[in-house]
Amino acid sequence: xxxxxxxxxxxxxxxxxxxxxxxxxxxxxxxxxxxxxxxxxxxxxxxxxxxxxxxxxxxxxxxxxxxxxxxxxxxxxxxxxxxxxxxxxxxxxxxxxxxxxxxxxxxxxxxxxxxxxxxxxxxxxxxxxxxxxxxxxxxxxxxxxxxxxxxxxxxxxxxxxxxxxxxxxxxxxxxxxxxxxxxxxxxxxxxxxxxxxxxxxxxxxxxxxxxxxxxxxxxxxxxxxxxxxxxxxxxxxxxxxxx
Length: 243
Fold this sequence. Notes:
By secondary structure, the protein is of the alpha/beta class. The chain has helices at residues 17-33, 44-53, 61-67, 71-86, 135-148, 158-162, 165-174, 183-189, 194-203, 210-236; strands at 9-11, 39-41, 88-91, 96-97, 113-114, 127-130, 191-192.
């Protein structure tokens, strides 16, 4: 099934019993309150197919997508590919219904992309929408490709910078995108993301955190750097070392 420019929503997978219950509760509420809004969950195989389709003669996004050290980086990229090719609304699976969506969200001739602030410095990438093949969505994907090719995993915030809100914000600024929603609109006003954005660290320690994946990747990169340093020092002395 394809949704193209019809308002649709897409989510990525998360784990843990608590979040699965939360997700099902939110999903059922969206279905009950918005019966005409088709919801679709996109998994990794389809994400990879879309990555392979993105300007294959100019970029090798699939290779970059597969090489990302963290699943959250693939999730960041996939949501953009889904909206680029299909059009519609992306939302994280833990986004809760608050108000009828037709009261505050609509594509029209003057607004074919809608997004808002999560912080004063960054736009929100867990809820946004656009018509298919929108140039601003392409701009964000291009920023991810650009930064992904120069990624420094030793940088503490490399996930945020490469595929997360920093890349999302830079892509929108490059294309001249203007935010429609305030931070309050997205956190508690029109929808609710209090759990995912504010409370998850204190409420549920098993909630899958991108920072955990980032820290693991940072540790791996530091270990690799230290090993290469030892190899270089040993080579100067005419010795060889194993891992």
